Batch of 4 targets.
Target 1
Amino acid sequence: MKSTLQDFLQYLSSEKNVSPSTLESYGRDVSQFLDFAAGRGVETPDEFRKPLITLYLGGLKAAGRAAATINRNTVSIRAFFHYLLKERLIGADPTLEMEAVKPEKKPPVILSLDEVERLLAAPDVSTAHGLRDKAMLELLYATGIRVSELVMLDAGDVQTALRFARCSGSGGKERVVPIGVIASESVEAYLKSSRDKLLREDKDEPALFLNSLGGRLTRQGFWKMIKKYAKEANIRQDITPHTLRHSFAAHLLEGGADLRSVQQMLGHADISTTQMYSGIARGNMKEVYERHHPRAR
């Protein structure tokens, strides 16, 4: 079955143009499910039945996995069986009519302004890595972009003089977001004094933010980084890479920014997604940003 899994992932990559991060999630989820099935003697496509899949997903719930994680596994497994059906490796899809788990709605973690200041001050800017980390944290809080968008930025996507960044959001939709002075200066300092030190001479790497090997820094790399700085900044809340995005939105709205402008900056397709941060006012996106974001000036 593992060879069939590889064929499935190749199909997603070449035919469906699935992103590398999604491909990684699908591969991990389905691989773990196949290991579970093999442990119960199920090793060929036509042996799979709905009760086995239900048992596996129920085990994830019993283990305390989040509803979002269980739903992601459901989507991954369902896509795998859709592929098997398409390739005529099974006669019926056992995932039909499977219901998603209703996710628990938890309020996002929002840092206070003091906590944000401590976090952004944590990197040691006397080092190449510290300059990079400072630029990433400042840019994330200044723009509210997703971590996946942050790590996919190329060097030419951020215009520090014009104070704008161009990023691709969900569904490949491109948007331009404003950047404050402090973040622009941090990115400029990184570009002038740090990026070339991280870039390998034998590499032609377009990525803005580089790892120690001169390649594009990953989401996992950023996750480790922000956890480290949160600990150094004595932030006791359970911080995630999305925490700065949530804080960006909340702080803008607390400062009087209107919901529609914040929706544009966050790249939300539906304003109801932005409404969890609450607050409605009026204004032009750039003007709103410069007037209300605490680090815009």
Note: Confidence is low (pLDDT under 50) at residues 279-285.
Target 2
Amino acid sequence: MHKPLEGKTILLTGSKKTQSIVDTIVQQGGEAVVCPLIRTVEVTEADDYERLASCKHYDWLIFTSQNGVEFFWKKIERHQFNLSQLSGKIAAVGEKTAALLERYGFTVHFMPSIFSADTFVKEFPSVSGESPKCLFIRGGLAKDTLKKGLPFPIDEWTVYTTVENKESIDKIVETVRNSRQPILIFASPSAVDCFHKYAVPEIGWNQAKIACIGHITKGAVEKYGAHVTYFPQKYTMQSVIEAIAKGEEM
């Protein structure tokens, strides 16, 4: 029986834990190659505990990524901070971000209809209340979409940063060269930039089809003159795999 991903080699370039996606790809007949082009590193400061304690003064804590949640939680565990001190609401961008928050015991009160910061700034003011006190728990490379787009000021706390992971480049180059139908999945502009910097001089942009999660990531690929083949409307890894399996090309 023919499986939808048979003959396809799918390269996963993100930093997220990908075992469930690997299993999905394999079940559908494809080969999954985990080759993260970025890795995340916690940003720690001497005043981390004070920053945690100040969270109780906010009406909203905003998370736009699983990494933000994970590194925020690391600080909570390290400083043995009592969650009952947090009385504000939680806003999350994306199902996976919300699911991780709930796994750690938080209740998510708002999630935008499309998992992007652009949609968040349009929809959040309708539920945030007037002049809310908000804290955005962010990564070092997060765009300023929230700060510029919301009609009220927000505070920000950078809890992690993203760095290049050049160790995956040789694996990517070799896999693309030796695969019949290689497909690269990008989930962030920083992964795209790393690929362009180190892999493109070896294999160019045209030896593999490109799949993207999110319009910011898609824009990063197109900035280099490359073509995005798979771009689902729902910004999740699962949706990208479904688009590839169904042959929904742009």
Note: Residues 78 and 101 are 17 Å apart (CA to CA).
Target 3
Amino acid sequence: MTINWEQETAFFKDDLIKDLVALLKIDSQRDIEHKTADFPLGPGPAKALNQVLAYAKRDGFATKNIKNVAGRIEFGAGTTTLGVLAHVDVVPAGDGWQTDPFEPVIKDGAIYARGTSDDKGPLLAAYYGLKVLKKLGIEPKQQIHFIIGTDEESEWLGVHEYFKTEPKPDWGFSPDAEFPIINGEKGIVSFQLDQHFTSETATDFTLQQFKSGIRDNMVPHAATAIIAHHQDATFETAFNTYLTTNQLTGSQKFANGHYTLQLHGKGAHAATPQAGRNGATFLINFLKDYAFDANGATYLALGATLHEDIYGKNIKIAYQDSLMGPLTVSASIFNYDFEAKSGQIILNIRYPKGIDIEAIKAQFEQNWQAQYAISIKPHYEIPHYVPGDDPLVKTLLATYEAHTGQAGTEGIVGGGTYGRILERGVAFGAQFPGAADVMHQPNEFMKIDDILKASAIYADAIYRLTL
């Protein structure tokens, strides 16, 4: 049977775009402040989940909702189950957007909104792959469980709740990364460092507050520092020069004996800190050479050590594995308050096989425990790898090659996807090689042609895997 998958997918183009726009309009970021018994993660994630399940019901698929935190679309029959795992939650929009992040804009062949590339666009690309199979009357010889989570960007509460009662697929993929394939994912852990404050009084330069960051898995775009100091033209000039020299933007304001400094860098996914310019550490790098109060100086010293230290060399946790590559560090969240005697830094670390989180923690303690209490945040993941000779990997790479004419090779990332939930699970698309990586960044977008191309690949891949 010869099938033109691109042609079959193009048949649904208008429907796919319409469904995606409606889904993108839902602010589905985790909202614990407004959680209820019916909406454990807040109303947004549940609304997005039910929107996707409504699409599936409309199209004649069987569905199941698990406590408004996860769901399933069912297709096919057999003794083996293929899983397709995606998520409808998004990271916070943050600042720096040129348009409303939850009012999708179609411009220059792309859709701009929070979640277009991570993960609502890829989710619907894969779902429309199922629709193509259904339209063609193809009956998969395996069960297909299209599993939808609502908390992938945080603690994975949705899928953990799902698998308390539902069976795990035998194998599968998550459309939540990049092509050709991601068959290896580094471990993920966040460390929280809480400063030990000493008794002291304010000085000429006193760090009153420092704030930056939204989520552990995001390189912070912006940072704000409030400093008690007299009006100082030399200080003001130095800050402006620093911004210009480093090609950064920012602002400063003096009022009532305090400077408020703001600096804007470039956000990125914490899995790829090299793609960002950490607003927090850039601001700290400017402040570090001034004679601050003792507690402020301690806080700034660690922040300065973290500046551009994406491989952990300065903080002495650098490690590299021949298969998975180097450990990476994102200094993601900063909160300091002089009056509250509170200073906190959260580091998000992606680490390869060959090292474990206790070894990393021990190294931190050796260097920083005199100044900080160091703890491991509860939600963490160990490294995951599916060998390249596994039929799952071979089939997905062959499908990619058939549609792109490009060689498919194994891939390792620092990002974490639902693919790692399954022993034989990988990530497969939907970002193509050479495409802009705008996940977790302002002005997130995905090209419509890429969504359609990915959908054709997913349709063919599911077909091949369930013959």
Note: The chain has eleven helices and 26 strands.
Target 4
Amino acid sequence: MIEKKLLNIAEDSACFVCGQDNSIGLQAKFTTDPEACSSHATVQLSADYQGWQDVIHGGIIAALLDEACIYACRCKAERCVTAELQLRYRKPVPVGVLIEISGVLTESHRKVWQASAQLKIASSLYAEAEAKVFIFN
């Protein structure tokens, strides 16, 4: 028989994306607007996070968009995890430029919510995501 274990979700400062104590992480500082159920952050990433020369790795972009979706959902639910993430990369994201990441809660019914996120540079869209987020009560 398979034993069920509850996922213990506890916030700490070691998160790869937003953890301020993670020396190898992105240390993105997300702010939220509880009324709009939205999130926002700006980051400037070094070549430490590149894939191809002078281009930020796609997995790093995915992590930022995922985090924006989670922060948007956390405006209404403290405990949540990504169940599904669909990405669209529109342009290569260069190293060393100011990146804006934003997320918004788009649907909040039952236990699986939906959120979307965008990554922009100087108001131009570089990547976007749609997420399904599982909510724990």
Note: Residues 58-73 form the longest helix (16 residues).
